[in-house]
Design goal:
Radius of gyration of chain A: 19 Å
Shape of chain A: globular
Oligomer: heterotetramer
Radius of gyration of chain C: 18 Å
Strand content of chain A: under 5%
Number of strands of chain C: 10
Largest interface: B-D, 41 and 49 residues
Chains: A mainly alpha (about 325), B alpha/beta (about 425), C alpha/beta (about 250), D mainly alpha (about 290)
Strand order of the largest sheet of chain C: 6-7-8-3-9-10
Shape of chain C: globular
Order of helices and strands of chain C: EEEHEEHEHHHEHEHEEHH
Strand content of chain C: 15-25%
CATH class of the domain at 4-19 and 30-79 and 166-250 in chain C: Alpha Beta
Distance between the termini of chain C: 38 Å
Helix content of chain A: over 70%
Order of helices and strands of chain A: HHHHHHEHHHHEHHHH
């Protein structure tokens, strides 16, 4: 299959990146992959189920604080802490989703926002655990398990992130192409009808929100040991807005698109802010340009070109 | 190369840039854009890195130039640019030109770490300065060893940077938060005000400073009647003003900054709070005074730097500043100037910018700066320096009120003990 | 024994009684039409049967099991499928995907989050069969949103059918169709229902459609049953004529 | 001497009213825009800030706060109309994410425009001389300006309500808001209403900005600190509901003034708790319909 060949090629190129790129580019790339994972996780909700979350930073920040706290206060190894944090985010999400899925549309979005902001406020107040406004600093990449140290170096950590991203991507791809994924598409296009067909749509929504948060939490859990700190900015609504934009810029409902969107967002902001203090202006114009001229997002447009005209919709 | 520092972007605020220079910079911006794609590939990075050892002295400045307190970053940038320009005009340091590598972090610690990493890797930067937020400084500190880079603080007030969070390559030539609280406390010891309250911003800096202050007041046998904390970004301070009136304090210590400070002072004036109690603040700066105008009159507080301080070095600096920028230097402009003076002394003494010798040299710096006598302390890398108490007054020749120095406290009483954030006497 | 039994089914909205003590049975192989003027409570009755609304009183039994208290999804799982008065499809999916998603709903592994080739295979077979029966095979690969209105109505039925229900609730299947389209639809439905393996409840405004398809008719008026019998019996019932035709004249929608 | 309980209650109540007025101007614009256009305007906070800055310049140039108060909203309203006509108009029929992106983009652009045009320093806007005094409420000084804010808020709320109730423009707004389908049937008027409502919404936010500037100065931080409050107000009240925005503004002002006084520990969490509570009990907000 062409898709598999493409995937293997991209992963191979990314795997070779540490050989050629200077360290700061590796930092940038690692961060882009982490954000890509974060954006892809949101795509499950936004692109495949049309559950537009305005509070996805909750997953990211929660994951980051969890893994950060575990790495600082326990003896857990890096992979274990990251894994536990991702699971914890998913569990948190079941509660959040249970409440939020009582509503639909804008109300759903606003409930997710409210939860994220509440979490933000809690992080700010609960100083003994979260470090308050300072956040958690000096988060180590503890080696292990079984004495494994390879993941703690800069390059090792990059491969760790890359591996998890690829695994998460394959998982999501499985999911959206599975019977479960078909139901999600049904909910996206007509929730009432899906319900009437005999699907317990709320259970599906809760499940997809939980998985989305777990993967978002995984991204956050990677971010904390990557950056070495976690602070309340990671829970702020601004990040929720940005990640939503990454998804849309990349192309919602494509999984690959949001990863590209996140990378594009990162690199564009990084480069633009080096050349001009007024980078925000160009960034704003870029958003408007995308909406007007690339409505399907980067990957959405590319995919539409690649696909032969005879192939069926989407 | 040009005699002015190479800044990587068009200068928006500083008006004194000559036209030719501006054109030159714009061309640089354009070529820079074209090179953007190339930057993504690996080639140029290694070339530049190789040239770093023999090229100019590059000083990295990952500043928060945009965002709510972008003004602080702008001040630091202006001051460092003037310093670099003066040094380069007289042949640079150690025969090498100074080059400032400025990047905007937007106040985001992640961006700050990333951009600093880039400066270190690509530009061969070995000295960084100007970092605005404590959160950024705390995020950078653990990386300094790996980067083999010296961090010269010019505005970071968080006490822990020279205590729990101290790393060998960090130096703080500027006044820290606890020192500001201490200065106000020293002033209050002699005041007849007895019932004292405090109002701080509800985050680390506010809590730390208020805590230092509260301990000070208790030791001074004052009646500390209560402390309030307002979330950052509070727009309506009426409820806090009402609470302060309710506490019936004689004096209130304020740990506010930026928009919060401006909002509080404006509204306190409207509620006539100043008629009920003395307002004392941890930082008095011109930017805020200009923003609130007459509402700042009568305000007292510690000042990390004031252009009105009567000292030959300071007079010289203010005159130079006026000639360059046609106004008087503000708090962080003075603080940065002092930081650069310390750095300069260190570099000259070490005859190198490599971290090892430079660190050793910086640890023994002693000089007279715009804020008077300064001694860098080896044990915690905090500069022992004077504390200033100022009062905001009207003065001939200024369109806005100015801070007038009313008391100067010597460095050994204003600076905490080594690795401490509080005082015992 | 009847497959569907409603006993004393009542639903109040505030002071308004939408459905009042309705009792009726439908046996396998039987097509029962529920008719009545606008606001007679027909749609509410459907909503009570398939669990969208809980009844204020009374109960619904399906194959001896009480349905009252179950969610629409659970009712559907037991073999009750319904179509909607207003067309409700997945417009961006193809016709086959629409029917397939409907069929998948009755599959025990419908929720499988990975793989699922077998699930899709089973659902697709059922979907294709249903499309075939409704004469939609030739448009199977088109996006549902691009179908003609008539075909969309038929797709609604096909989706219900793909679920292989034992009881089919048809809510105005010819609503909004032209005369010719209605003719065709009726023919298709007639063939479909002739098999006799289904119990059908049909709500319909078009009397011609009702008389051609229904074996039994229940007449509702202001929520209550005013007549129940074969088409001939109902047609002859003077009470029905008074209540129904009187209202029907001004209910021209 | 400590404040008497009564004096305290009185001043705090007056504070609630003046804050309600400021928040209301922001919330009502946002809610009208959402009601008509289904656009969640992320640029609303920046528009509010722009109002404050333009007001600052007008007050400096003309020497009159009152001129600024009238003219700044008109200028900002025109900016809003231009944005609607130039960009938003091409996007109706697209899903909400398109609006999220363009309004977010607008916020970034305007934020930078303000920094380039006015600099990074906060700017002083004086309370107009007429209102710089205080009145004594049971012996406690209370600024005239805040009383003016409360009064002006009441007057404007009644005025907006009357426009919505009595004029054809208002009728069209209510009709479109309650039944978006009807928008199509209304034909040519729809475009006018959208432009008009976006302009008026932005103008009201700018009015709030001008009015707030003597309290908080004109500063770059205004936008971020206000946008969340504005969202909360609109969400609590029910998106698209005029009366809802009034109630939302009052509730937010109330918890900020009284909540912060009696339970300061919860200060930053208060408004989110309220929002969550309201949404759990009534998913569409107090006076909104769920959609």
């Amino acid at each position: 299959m062409g898709a598999w060949r493409g995937l293997i090629l991209v992963v191979a190129v990314l795997a070779l990146a540490p050989l050629g790129l200077p360290p700061y580019m590796m930092t940038l790339l690692t961060e882009a992959l982490i954000l890509g994972l974060f954006a892809m996780s949101l795509d499950l909700m936004v692109g495949y189920t049309r559950l537009v979350s305005f509070g996805h930073a909750a997953a990211y920040g929660f994951g980051a604080y969890c893994s950060g706290w575990l790495l600082i206060n326990t003896d857990l190894s890096l992979p274990s802490a990251v894994f536990v944090a991702a699971i914890a985010s998913g569990v948190l999400a079941i509660g959040v989703a249970w409440v939020c899925t009582r509503s639909t549309g804008v109300s759903f979005s606003m409930l997710t926002l409210a939860f994220a902001q509440l979490l933000y406020a809690i992080t700010f107040r609960w100083t003994s655990v979260t470090g308050g406004s300072d956040g958690l600093a000096g988060i180590p990449r503890r080696p292990g398990p079984f004495g494994l140290t390879a993941l703690t170096s800069k390059t090792g950590f990059y491969f760790f992130v890359l591996g998890l991203l690829v695994a998460a991507f394959l998982l999501c791809r499985q999911l959206v192409n599975s019977p479960f994924g078909a139901v999600l598409r049904g909910i996206r296009e007509n929730e009432a009808k899906t319900l009437a067909l005999g699907y317990n749509t709320r259970a599906y929504k809760i499940a997809v929100v939980a998985l989305s948060y777990a993967l978002g939490g995984l991204a956050g859990a990677l971010y904390a040991p990557f950056a070495g700190f976690a602070n309340s900015e990671l829970l702020f609504w601004l990040l929720s807005g940005q990640v939503l934009i990454m998804v849309i810029v990349g192309g919602a409902g494509t999984l690959i698109g949001p990863i590209l969107g996140a990378a594009f967002f990162m690199f564009a902001q990084h480069q633009l802010s080096s050349y001009t203090e007024s980078w925000a202006i160009y960034f704003g114009m870029l958003f408007i340009f995308f909406v007007l001229f690339v409505p399907r997002g980067i990957w959405g447009s590319v995919a539409a070109r690649l696909r032969r005209p005879a192939a069926d919709g989407r | 190369m040009s005699i002015t520092p190479k800044t990587k972007r068009r200068n928006l605020i500083a008006p004194a840039e000559p036209k030719t220079q501006r054109l030159l910079n714009r061309r640089k911006v354009l070529t820079g854009m074209a090179a953007g794609a190339v930057t993504l590939s690996m080639g140029p990075a290694f070339l530049r890195r190789a040239s770093a050892a023999t090229g100019p002295i590059k000083i990295g400045m990952p500043l928060a130039l945009t965002g709510p307190i972008g003004i602080v970053g702008q001040q630091i940038k202006r001051s460092c640019e003037l310093w670099a320009k003066m040094k380069n005009a007289s042949g640079g340091l150690l025969g090498q030109k100074i080059e400032l590598v400025v990047e905007d972090t937007g106040g985001n610690p992640a961006a700050c770490v990333r951009k600093t990493q880039q400066m270190v890797d690509r530009d061969g930067v070995r000295i960084i300065t100007g970092i605005v937020f404590s959160s950024e400084a705390l995020a950078l500190a653990p990386k300094l060893k790996e980067w083999n880079t010296i961090f010269m603080s010019s505005s970071n007030g968080d006490g822990r940077l020279t205590a729990d969070a101290l790393v060998p390559n960090f130096f703080r030539p500027n006044t820290s938060g606890p020192m500001g609280a201490r200065t106000v406390s020293l002033h209050l010891r002699q005041s007849k005000s007895n019932k004292i309250a405090a109002l701080g911003l509800d985050y680390a800096w506010g809590h730390n400073s208020v805590q230092v202050f509260e301990e000070e007041m208790k030791r001074a046998k004052k009646n500390f009647v209560g402390k309030l904390f307002a979330p950052t970004g509070t727009k309506d301070y009426a409820t806090y003003i009402a609470k302060l009136k309710d506490l019936d304090a004689d004096a209130v210590f304020l740990v506010l900054q930026g928009d919060d400070n401006n909002a509080f002072l404006s509204q306190a004036k409207q509620f006539r709070l100043g008629e009920k109690m003395e307002l004392l603040t941890e930082i008095v700066d011109l930017d805020s005074i200009r923003a609130v105008g007459d509402a700042s009159l009568g305000l007292m507080g510690s000042s990390r730097y004031s252009f009105t301080y009567n000292h030959p070095k300071n007079k010289e600096f203010v005159a130079l500043w006026q000639k360059e920028y046609n106004n008087v230097p503000d708090t962080f402009e003075g603080e940065s100037w002092q930081t650069m003076a310390v750095l300069e002394a260190g570099i000259l003494k070490a005859k190198s910018i490599d971290a090892e010798p430079l660190r050793a040299a910086l640890e023994t710096v002693e000089l007279e700066s715009v804020k008077g006598k300064l001694t860098m302390r080896k044990c915690d890398h905090q500069a022992v320096q004077q504390g200033f108490m100022v009062k905001v007054v009207k003065r001939e020749g200024f369109s806005h009120p100015v801070p007038d120095v009313v008391a100067v406290y010597p460095g050994d009483v204003t600076t905490p003990r080594c690795n401490k954030t509080s005082y015992d006497d | 024994m009847a497959l569907l039994e409603c006993e004393g089914l009542t639903r109040r909205f505030g002071g308004l009684v939408a459905v009042s003590s309705v009792t009726m049975q439908v046996a396998t192989g039987e097509v029962r039409a529920v008719i009545g003027p606008n606001g007679a409570g027909k749609s509410t009755l459907f909503n009570l049967i398939n669990g969208v609304l809980p009844p204020s009183a009374g109960l619904v039994r399906f194959d001896g099991e009480q349905l009252t208290g179950l969610t629409p999804a659970q009712v559907c799982q037991r073999g009750v499928s319904r179509t909607f008065q207003l067309t409700a499809l997945f417009p961006e999916m193809t016709v086959r995907e629409n029917a397939s998603l409907a069929a998948q709903a009755r599959d025990a592994q419908r929720w499988l989050p990975f793989g699922g080739g077998a699930v899709f295979h089973r659902a697709r077979a059922k979907a294709d069969a249903a499309l075939e029966r409704l004469g939609l095979s030739h448009v199977a690969d088109r996006p549902a949103g691009l179908l003609s209105h008539g075909d969309q109505r038929l797709l609604e039925v096909a989706m219900a059918l793909a679920q292989e229900p034992r009881l089919l609730l048809l809510d105005e299947p010819t609503q909004g169709l032209s005369v010719e389209e209605t003719q065709q639809a009726v023919e298709t439905l007639k063939t479909l229902l002739a098999g006799g393996e289904l119990a059908v409840v049909l709500v319909e405004h078009d009397m011609e459609v009702v008389f051609r398809l229904a074996h039994k008719i229940t007449v509702l008026h202001r929520g209550a049953v005013i007549a129940d019998g074969t088409p001939e019996e109902v047609k002859a019932d003077p009470g029905v004529q008074a209540a129904y035709l009187g209202d029907f004249a001004d209910a021209a929608d | 001497m400590q404040l008497g309980t009564l004096a305290l209650l009185l001043t705090q109540t007056a504070n609630v009213l003046s804050q309600t007025a400021l928040l209301f101007f922001l919330g009502v614009g946002l809610t009208l825009i959402f009601g008509i256009m289904r656009v969640v305007n992320f640029a609303h906070g920046t528009i509010y800030m722009l109002g404050a800055y333009i007001g600052y310049s007008l007050a400096r140039v003309t020497g009159s706060f009152w001129v600024a108060l009238i003219v700044a909203p008109i200028i900002v309203g025109a900016v809003g109309v231009a944005f609607e006509a130039g960009i938003l108009r091409r996007l109706y029929g697209r899903d909400g994410s398109a609006f999220l992106m363009v309004t977010f983009g607008l916020a970034l652009i305007l934020g930078d425009v303000v920094q380039i045009g006015w600099g990074a320093s906060a700017l002083r806007v004086a309370v107009p001389d007429l209102l710089s005094g205080v009145v004594l409420l049971l012996g406690e000084p209370f600024p005239d300006y805040r009383l003016f804010l409360a009064g002006f808020g009441v007057v404007m709320a009644i005025a907006i309500w009357q426009v919505l109730e009595r004029t054809r423009f208002g009728l069209l707004i209510r009709a479109t808001s309650q039944n978006p389908e009807m928008a199509r049937a209304l034909g040519t008027d729809v475009q006018l209403i959208r432009s008009g409502v976006f302009g008026v919404g932005c103008g009201l936010a700018a009015l709030g900005g001008v009015l707030a500037s003597p309290l908080v100065t004109a500063s770059l931080g205004m936008a971020a600190s206000m946008i969340i409050d504005a969202f909360v107000i609109v969400i609590i009240g029910g998106m698209g509901s005029f009366v809802g925005s009034l109630i939302g503004a009052f509730l937010v002002a109330f918890v900020q003034v009284f909540g912060n006084f009696y339970l300061p520990e919860l200060a930053i969490a208060f408004i989110y708790l309220i929002m969550l509570l309201v949404l759990i009990v009534r998913p569409g907000g107090l006076l909104g319909k769920e959609d």
